[in-house]
């Protein structure tokens, strides 16, 4: 393995392609200055969440046994969707985070009596939960990013989020959402680069030849990949390539190829009006019929049903 591999290695960013195809979308659900004592209980969520300490420090716990201390200019991310609490001190009385969020929306933020001790920003990263990819199993349950320097690009992003939240009086907007997405990607890049011990898909990216194989698969999903061709292109024997994929990602190379093709197809069907025959060509299926049969096996619906339902949801949300 090589620790010199970067996510953006050469002319193609594999993890960026994964995140874009999975359609990770960020948002800020709470931002406020707070006066101690304060504490919030966050119920189980469908999506990963993160908490940023702009000023002051706070505590976080998922089980009341292991309490994490988060200092000023630090970020903590929970990659799973579990219940947890945050507070200026352990053993505080906790209120539901949704109650505090609604109060901010009404222009009546809670915990404002006395001296302001904290400024926090809380966000989440959502995605279509029907989609599956090995990257989901590669995130540690909790990521704690230590104190950032003010000039650090990640902290510059945080300041941009704060400025935009201030401009919109705490309501947020599309700009905030895009900045939150950029923050998530930057944090994942930082985690990848600074941690020698990674697992799953992140570990695969640190294996030079597996990384090269992933680049080929992602750049050229429509190529007529075979195990022989892929191993030849990366300079490994077929058996060695299979072993490296199994050891890091947990599946065989050709299984990954098929899974990636159908995931790309799902994204294109859901978010575009491209004809199914063209999508099949773009992602490496012989015909629209072959794609449709495989699609139904993966997602328990037809491509046309997905496209119709997606259009209806978009219309209903207007």
Please give the structural blueprint.
Blueprint: E1 8-9, E2 12-13, H1 14-22, E3 25-35, E4 39-42, E5 49-55, E6 58-61, E7 67-70, E8 74-78, E9 84-87, E10 95-96, H2 97-105, E11 116-126, E12 142-145, H3 153-167, H4 174-194, H5 200-205, H6 208-219, H7 227-234, H8 238-248, H9 253-271, H10 276-283, H11 288-299, H12 303-316
Parallel strand pairs: 4-10
Antiparallel strand pairs: 1-2, 3-11, 4-9, 5-8, 5-11, 6-7, 6-9, 8-12
Structural features, described:
With 318 residues, the chain is an alpha+beta fold. The protein has two domains: 170 residues, Jelly Rolls, CATH 2.60.120; 110 residues, Homeodomain-like (Arc Repressor Mutant, subunit A), CATH 1.10.10. Helices cover 45% and strands 19% of the residues. The protein contains twelve helices and twelve strands. The strands form three sheets. The chain has a five-stranded antiparallel sheet. It has a five-stranded mixed sheet with strand order 7-6-9-4-10. A hairpin with a 5-residue loop joins β6 and β7. α9 runs antiparallel to α10. The longest helix has 21 residues. The protein is globular and about 70 Å long.
Name its key features:
318 residues, Jelly Rolls, 12 strands, globular, five-stranded antiparallel β-sheet, disordered N terminus, five-stranded mixed β-sheet, 19% strand, alpha+beta, Arc Repressor Mutant, subunit A
Give, in order, the helices and strands. Answer: EEHEEEEEEEEHEEHHHHHHHHHH
Biggest β-sheet strands, sense, barrel: 5 strands, antiparallel
Tell me the name of the CATH homologous superfamily of the largest domain: Jelly Rolls
Query: Overall mean pLDDT score?
Result: 90
CATH topology of the largest domain: Jelly Rolls
Question: For the record, what CATH class of the largest domain applies?
Answer: Mainly Beta
Number of strands: 12
Q: Return residue spans where pLDDT drops below 50 for at least 5 consecutive residues.
A: 1-9
Euclidean distance between termini CA atoms:
49 Å
Strand line-up of the largest beta sheet: 3-11-5-8-12
Number of helices: 12
């Amino acid at each position: 393995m090589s620790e010199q591999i970067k996510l953006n290695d050469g002319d193609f960013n594999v993890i960026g392609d994964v995140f874009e195809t999975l359609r990770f979308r960020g948002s800020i659900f709470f931002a406020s200055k707070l006066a101690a004592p304060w504490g919030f209980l966050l119920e189980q969520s469908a999506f990963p969440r993160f908490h940023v300490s702009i000023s002051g420090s706070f505590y976080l716990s998922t089980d009341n046994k292991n309490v994490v201390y988060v200092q000023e200019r630090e970020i903590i991310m929970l990659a799973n969707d579990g219940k947890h609490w945050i507070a200026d001190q352990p053993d505080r009385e906790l209120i539901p985070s949704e109650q505090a969020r609604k109060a901010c929306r009404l222009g009546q933020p809670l915990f404002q009596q006395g001296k302001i001790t904290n400024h926090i920003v809380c966000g989440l990263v959502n995605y279509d939960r029907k989609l599956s990819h090995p990257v989901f199993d590669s995130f540690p349950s909790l990521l704690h990013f230590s104190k950032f320097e003010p000039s650090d690009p990640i902290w510059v992003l945080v300041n941009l989020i704060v400025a935009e939240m201030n401009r919109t009086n705490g309501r947020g907007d599309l700009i905030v959402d895009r900045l939150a997405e950029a923050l998530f990607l930057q944090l994942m890049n930082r985690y990848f680069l600074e941690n020698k011990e990674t697992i799953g898909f992140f570990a695969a990216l640190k294996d030079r030849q597996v990384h090269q194989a992933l680049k080929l698969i992602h750049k050229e999903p429509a190529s007529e990949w075979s195990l022989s061709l892929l191993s030849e292109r990366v300079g490994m024997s077929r058996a060695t390539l299979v072993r490296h994929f199994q050891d890091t990602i947990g599946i065989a190379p050709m299984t990954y190829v098929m899974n990636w093709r159908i995931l790309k197809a799902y994204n294109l069907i859901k978010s575009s009006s491209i004809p199914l025959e063209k999508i099949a060509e773009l992602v490496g299926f012989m015909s629209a019929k072959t794609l449709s049969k495989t699609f139904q096996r993966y997602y328990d619906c037809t491509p046309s049903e997905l496209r119709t339902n997606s259009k209806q949801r978009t219309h209903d949300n207007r």
